[in-house]
């Protein structure tokens, strides 16, 4: 992709054009003629708030911060891809009852507006807009517009997207769990899979999970090592053959022994999961498998074309939402720039601001 290519300041406007503009979030309104029907299905407290908000001279701002809202939804088992108005209003009602200040509500407004614009950026990339600009950075992995374009339907995810998303999953697990997980880069794990010695300096016994994605002849699969349980998991979007399960057992056994873990017993298992139905979505399935493993959830999701498209969009938006600081990086080549000051560039923090 030519990421090491030189760049000039004449392209700085390109980075500015990609920054999402923060737009005000309008208070929710009910369509004329549908008020009674909609109100009758809502909780009493929400119904009362809507009635008061629509009274003359009364202005109430319903806004929420995306990450707080998504966490709130997850705690209730709600699907963020299918949000009903009643659910949103119940969330807002809780915020109102907690006496949040207007200044706090403004933060929620800016966040949700930015989130919606991230979806627009993803859709532009999927539509084939030819732009070369750095959009996000997750640890050592840099996500450009071209990488996001590869998350589109019928396209194969590339290693930068795979590793960046895995980095996020491991970060989240480690932030929420006393036990820790360790990410092995896909390039390193593919070498391990193929029988090469690993140069990683890691003690597997310090981690609950050592997890990675393997590129096996242009097909993404998941390998998870659980030292405390003395076994590994192998998950193939197309299904696990006995030969591949044996290869996983041999590769992970060799890795553990190389790192000083000479277990007398080591096995390889798999877990039930939806199967890939096309020829391009193995990376999407692999990331979803890894996400469910780290959440310690049953691997269940829609493997229909529509369901997979939603997963692709969620992966892309998540990578943009959770960017590290871009202020010291050139937005064209992704390298640290000493001659261009991006600190005042609105695009340098536009995406990362939604992750606060």
UniProtKB/TrEMBL annotation:
Print the keywords alphabetically: DNA-binding, Hydrolase, Protease
Which BP terms does GO give this entry?
Answer: proteolysis
GO terms for MF: cysteine-type peptidase activity; DNA binding
Q: Which PROSITE patterns does this chain map to? A: ULP_PROTEASE
Keyword Translocase listed? The answer is no
Q: Which residues form the Ubiquitin-like protease family profile domain?
A: 141-293
Q: Which domain of life is it from?
A: Eukaryota
**InterPro entries, per database record:** Integrase_recombinase_N (IPR010998), Papain-like_cys_pep_sf (IPR038765), Peptidase_C48_C (IPR003653)
UniProt keyword DNA-binding, yes or no:
yes
* Family named by the database record: Belongs to the peptidase C48 family.
Protein name, per record: Sentrin-specific protease-like
Organism name: Triplophysa rosa (Cave loach)
